Amino acid sequence: MPLSSSSSSSSEQFSCRPPPTPPYNPIPINSKMDCSASSQSTKKNSYSLERFLQEPASPSPRTAHKSGYRPHSSMSRSQALQSPTSSVGTYPGLGQASNRRPRLLLMGQRRSGKSSISSVVFHKMPPTETLFLESTTRIQKDPIQLVPIFVLERGFIANIWLLHSSFMDFQVWDFPGQLNFLDPTFDFDHIFGELGALIWVIDAQDEYLEPLSNLHTTIIAIQRFYPAINIEVFVHKVDGLSDEYKLDTQRDIMQRTQDELSDNGLDNVQVSYHLTSIYDHSIFEAFSKVIQKLIPQLGTLENLLNVLCSNSGIEKAFLFDVLSKIYIATDSSPVDMQSYEICSDYIDVIVDVSEIYGYDRKPQGQVSSPTSEAPSETQQEEEEATLEASSIIRLQNGMVLYLREINKYLALICLMRKDSIERQGLVDFNVQVFQNALQRVFEVGR
Ligand SMILES: Nc1nc2c(ncn2[C@@H]2O[C@H](COP(=O)(O)OP(=O)(O)OP(=O)(O)O)[C@@H](O)[C@H]2O)c(=O)[nH]1
């Protein structure tokens, strides 16, 4: 939906790093990027942006975008809720390796909040409604995939598939707290084979020594056979705790885990810890980090975002999955919670506005052929079919939020100073280059 709003809102306490030195440049379209380089590097190497722009070959996602596109924003929230699909996407690298979806496994003691996390993040359940969730008794397998039904209905499978093969495709398994996977009746391989990440949820408001001991047993058991699994510990329900107590709890859990693993000769196991709550953005932030680790092209995405930021006067850029509000990549400057929160809230604003004022964009192929009676109307329809949603919000503290729809599921949200948006043509151009590069990166991955 071509959406362009310009409004003012207040935002206090905005901490951002100082602006890059102007003048900012258009991203040189013949610059090269190292797709395998570390995320910190913005060195230019093996992928030419010019090549991204000029290679004709296969039908480009951009064409697909034009021809089979329905703006994400025009999909109603209720549709999103009813759909079993979320939009974190299909990530070809992972899927291709095994032909099976990588899994995120949620484990932890009973009532620690596993089902609530899954419902809030992937099904948009309001946090307060999780109070009525019943205890899980069987393993819940939740496919999070992105070949949405309405794409097939629209008959643009080939084009859209290209577009959608760029995202992640995985399953979230909710493992009931009362089940013991070490029981010989459980198929260990079925549970842990193909696992991308094990998310262990600990209720920080409850006694956690026993769950912690179960976590240690689990890590020790899976390390022998599946050392590549990412182990993520969510120190959950921290909304009721003071800042000091939260950090103390996290520190204690880390220390005990480290000691236990060292005692068992597992000094090098990488365990990540996140303080989370479904009542604020922390759960989305934590999931963003978990999912980013499963995207092999993360370094490339970060490099592209770094180049975009440094050439356009952007302070912080996030590539968001709109439905889940998980960011799949950001530039390599540190993420501060306030920036993330305001960008995440911005998505809600845009989705709400689009639900009211959005409309179905006709795919290019369905735009009626020009007639002598109404040529201008057809032209307008064609133009609308090719426009991405975009929006700018000016904040009272001099910062600007810039949103640009990248494709059906992804949106780029940038925070910049007011003087950077004065060169909006330049920013738009650079974002377009970034968008094309992104599509090519995913095509190459496919
Ligand atoms: N305060 C607070 N409560 C939470 C949070 N997350 C979940 N809860 C509450 O914790 C309770 C248990 O949540 P569930 O999601 O059912 O827990 P579970 O781990 O799936 O439980 P089992 O299905 O028995 O394994 C619910 O009443 C939730 O509302 C949180 O971040 N903060």
Automatic annotation (TrEMBL):
Residues 1-103, 361-383 are annotated as: Disordered. Residues 1-11 have a biased composition (Low complexity). GO terms for biological process: cellular response to starvation; negative regulation of autophagy; positive regulation of TORC1 signaling. GO terms for cellular component: endomembrane system; fungal-type vacuole membrane; Gtr1-Gtr2 GTPase complex; nucleus. It catalyses: GTP + H2O = GDP + phosphate + H(+). GO terms for molecular function: GTP binding; GTPase activity. Residues 36-48, 73-89 have a biased composition (Polar residues). InterPro entries: Gtr1_RagA, P-loop_NTPase, RagC/D. It comes from the Eukaryota. It is found in: Endomembrane system. Keywords: GTP-binding, Hydrolase, Membrane, Nucleotide-binding. Residues 17-26 have a biased composition (Pro residues). Belongs to the GTR/RAG GTP-binding protein family. Component of the GSE complex. PANTHER family: GH16429P (PTHR11259:SF2), RAS-RELATED GTP BINDING RAG/GTR YEAST (PTHR11259). GTPase involved in activation of the TORC1 signaling pathway, which promotes growth and represses autophagy in nutrient-rich conditions. This is GTP-binding protein. It comes from Tuber aestivum (summer truffle).
